[in-house]
Design a protein that fits this description.
The chain is α/β, with parallel strands linked by helices. It folds into three domains: 128 residues, Rossmann fold (3-Layer(aba) Sandwich); 175 residues, P-loop containing nucleotide triphosphate hydrolases (Rossmann fold), CATH 3.40.50.300; 128 residues, Helicase, Ruva Protein, domain 3 (Orthogonal Bundle), CATH 1.10.8.60. Helix content is 46%, strand content 14%. The strands form six sheets. A five-stranded parallel beta sheet has the order 2-1-3-6-7, with helices on both faces. Helix 1 links the parallel strand 1 and strand 2. The longest helix has 28 residues. It starts with a strand and ends with a helix. The relative contact order is 0.07.
C-alpha cells in the first residue's frame, strides 16, 4: 500500500466515490461521517493523510486541522469544501493544512495531491533518519576508548552538556575537539537547533569578522547585500569556534561582549543584534601563555576558562589504539579495500610504538593509507609507511626523499603483493634471491 488515508465527509455518496477512486490507486482507505467517528479511528491508527470536509455535522474542518496538527504533526490534511471561501482557505493553511480544494471541480487533483502529500511525509521521515544517524555518529557513546583519560573527558562533557555554560576544549591538534563539541550539542536542550562550526585560523581579521558577525550592505567593497553572520545563524543553537587562540585581539573584544550581553554589532551597522547562541571554543595553544604574551585577552580567557575539558593526546592513551584502529578499519574498509578484514598483532604493536604527533587524525589517515596499499586480507607492518620502521639507528636517516627509502618501500610493496613469496618477489624485482635477502636484512624488512 502507498499509504493510509482517512476520508471525513458526511455526504455518503461522495465519500464512497472518493474511497473507491483512492483505493484503485493502491492506498488503504478508512471512512468517517463526522469528527467524533474520525477521532475514534485516529486513536486506533494514525493515517498519513486526512481528506476532510470543511462543514461537518459536529464541527468545522478548518478548526480540526489545528487540532490534528497539534496531536499528530506528521499527518497531512487536505480540506474539501463545497463552496470556495478565501478566508477559510487562508486560515486552513495557517492552521497547517497541506491544501484546500473545491469538491467536484477539483476531483482530478485528489490523487496528485495525495501523492505529493505522501512524498512530503516520506521526505520528512528521511530527514529525521539522517538527523538521528548524524546524532548517533556524534554521540558520547561513540567516542571510543576505555582509558582513564578519555573516560574522564567524556564524563565532564556529559555533565556540562545539559547546561548552557560556555565550554573550552583544550588539547593538541587531532584529539577530536569538534567531535566532542558536536556530542555536547547533541546532548543539550539545543540539539534540534543549529550546530555551526568555524575555524578561526583560516580567515584574516576582516573576513573573520564578517563571517562571524555578518555585515550590512555597502559596509565595505564587495558587500552588495546584507549578510547574516554565523553568530546569528547559530541563534538558539551552538557555535563552535575552533582554534580560538588565532582570533585577532580586536575581535576577541566583540566575542567577549556576546558572552556577557548576548549582543553584537554587524560590520557597518549601528544597532546591536541579539543572539541566544551557546559558545564552545577550542584551542591547541596554551591560552594562558598567549595571555602572558599579550596575544589573548585575559578577561576573555577567564570567561572561556569557566569550564575547560582537556582532551588527552593519543600517545597518553595508547591502550585505546586497537579499538580506534579497528573502528577506522570498519569505517574505511568497505569503500577503500573490502578484502581487508582484520589487523595483525604486529601491526597494532607498531602503532603503539609510534609517537602520534597528529593524534587520532593521524591514526585515521594511517589506517586509510594502509588499506590502500594492502594486498591481503589483513593489515600487517608491511602496509605501514616508512616512519613506522623499527627504531634501529641505521634506519633513522631514511626519509621519503632518499633513494634507499624508495627502494625499501618498493621491496615492501612487492613482498606485500606476492604475500611474502621471496622467490616471486625476486623475480618481479629482477634481482637474485640472495640479493633480495641481503636488502631485506639491510632495511630490516621482516
Amino acid at each position: 500500500m502507498l499509504g493510509n488515508i482517512l476520508i471525513i465527509d458526511d455526504e455518503d455518496k461522495l465519500r464512497n466515490l472518493l474511497s473507491r477512486i483512492i483505493k484503485l490507486e493502491g492506498f488503504a482507505v478508512r471512512e468517517a461521517a463526522d469528527l467524533k467517528s474520525a477521532k475514534k479511528l485516529l486513536e486506533k491508527d494514525i493515517p498519513e493523510v486526512i481528506l476532510c470536509d470543511v462543514k461537518l455535522p459536529d464541527g468545522n474542518g478548518v478548526d480540526f486541522v489545528k487540532e490534528v496538527k497539534l496531536r499528530y504533526p506528521e499527518t497531512e490534511l487536505i480540506l474539501l469544501t463545497a463552496y470556495g471561501n478565501i478566508a477559510d482557505g487562508v486560515q486552513a493553511m495557517k492552521n497547517g493544512a497541506f491544501d484546500y480544494i473545491t469538491k467536484g471541480d477539483d476531483n482530478e487533483k485528489i490523487i496528485p495531491l495525495l501523492n505529493r502529500a505522501i512524498e512530503k511525509i516520506q521526505l520528512k521521515k528521511r530527514v529525521v533518519q539522517l538527523e538521528n544517524k548524524f546524532k548517533k555518529t556524534y554521540d558520547f557513546d561513540n567516542i571510543l576508548g576505555e582509558s582513564d583519560q578519555i573516560r574522564a573527558a567524556v564524563a565532564l562533557a556529559r555533565k556540562v552538556a545539559g547546561t548552557d555554560a560556555t565550554v573550552l576544549l583544550a588539547g593538541e591538534t587531532g584529539t577530536g575537539k569538534e567531535v566532542f563539541a558536536q556530542a555536547i550539542h547533541n546532548a543539550s536542550r539545543r540539539q534540534r537547533n543549529p550546530f555551526v562550526a568555524l575555524n578561526c585560523s583560516t580567515l584574516n581579521k576582516e573576513l573573520l569578522e564578517s563571517e562571524l558577525f555578518g555585515h550590512k550592505e555597502g559596509s565595505f567593497t564587495g558587500a552588495t547585500k546584507d549578510k547574516k553572520g554565523l553568530m546569528e545563524e547559530a541563534d538558539t543553537g551552538t557555535l563552535f569556534l575552533d582554534e580560538i587562540g588565532e582570533m585577532h585581539i580586536d575581535l576577541q573584544a566583540k566575542l567577549l561582549r556576546v558572552l556577557e550581553t548576548r549582543e553584537f554589532i554587524k560590520v557597518g551597522d549601528t544597532k546591536p543584534t541579539r543572539s541566544d547562541t551557546r559558545i564552545i571554543a577550542a584551542s591547541n595553544k596554551n591560552l594562558l601563555n598567549e595571555v602572558s604574551s599579550g596575544k589573548f585577552r585575559e578577561d576573555l580567557y577567564y570567561r572561556l576558562n569557566a569550564f575547560t575539558i582537556l582532551l588527552p593526546a593519543l600517545r597518553d592513551r595508547k591502550s585505546d589504539i586497537p579499538v580506534l584502529a579497528k573502528h577506522f578499519l570498519k569505517v574505511y574498509g568497505e569503500k577503500t579495500n573490502p578484502a581487508v578484514k582484520s589487523i595483525s598483532k604486529d601491526f597494532l604493536d607498531a602503532l603503539k610504538k609510534h609517537e602520534w604527533k597528529g593524534n587520532i587524525r593521524e591514526l585515521k589517515n594511517i589506517i586509510e593509507r594502509s588499506l590502500i596499499v594492502c594486498n591481503g586480507s589483513e593489515l600487517t607492518p608491511l602496509d605501514l609507511p616508512l616512519e613506522f620502521s623499527d627504531s634501529d639507528p641505521k634506519n633513522n636517516h631514511l626519509s621519503d626523499f632518499d633513494l634507499a627509502s624508495v627502494e625499501k618501500l618498493h621491496i615492501q610493496h612487492v613482498l606485500n603483493h606476492t604475500r611474502n613469496n621471496k622467490s616471486e618477489t625476486a623475480r618481479l624485482l629482477n634481482i637474485g634471491l640472495s640479493t633480495l635477502y641481503r636488502k631485506m636484512e639491510e632495511y630490516n624488512i621482516q
